[in-house]
Amino acid sequence: MSDPLDALEKSISTLRRAIRDASAAGDSERAGELRAQLRRAERAWDALIDTGEPAPAPPPRTVPDTPSAAFGSQLPAREHVHRALMLLGTPAAPKLIVGVHEAFFPGELSASKLSSLRRDEERSYRSSPGARPYYLCPALAHDLLTPVRALITVSTWPLEQRIIGPLSPRVDFLTGAIRVAEAVHAAEASAGGEPSTAALRLLWRFAANIPDALPRSTPGHESALDARQVIDAAQAELDVHLDADRAARAEASRRARTSLRDAQQLFGAPPQNVTPLRARA
Prior knowledge:
The chain is mainly alpha-helical and about 280 residues long. The chain has 11 helices and 3 strands, in the order ααααααβββααααα.
């Protein structure tokens, strides 16, 4: 199963390389923005390390790399959401976040908690910017840079990762399918472990909407899924859309960095503050 710490460490490594490239290119503004993202990612890593310290009493035996149910039940809802998003690596709707949490993590999380959580995150940031190691924030629409409130992201992600372009819903769906399939495959490969029924059901829902991802035999049985087949099928389609999606997101992120304040880069701009792309053409 994908570990949120591993995902953060990969993000930190990617940000450091991007800072080096921006500095080498003489783009000081881009390097400064990346350094701010790196600091947020490092604070998020520190926070996860702190919350992941073992309890004094030895926990019951569990599958390796799987948090105990007791530990999961003690975490606040925002931590549950953060873990699910870090596994997916893409903006996600509350229903998918709850599904990922149910499939791979202990503790309870309901979609009803996410509505108030989003408002609380923005209020917390505006009252004390940067006080938390990360914030849960909406995705941003590529054209108006306004919040896409149906989709939640993590503030430590690069801006490009938090923007939704014309192809992004499909790209993010395929990316999420790959990440879920990798987590299922890791559970299958772990000593004495196996994916949960909820994880297999979630993977099946992804695979049902990807050409060539489902097994040709025993249709309708989640246990017959081949995680590697899902990964290969999703990656094949992802390769078709990825470059165009990245270009759209990169262009939108450049506009966001020059036209939005720090808080707006996280929580979106009011619609009246942004000129639509059509009007600029």
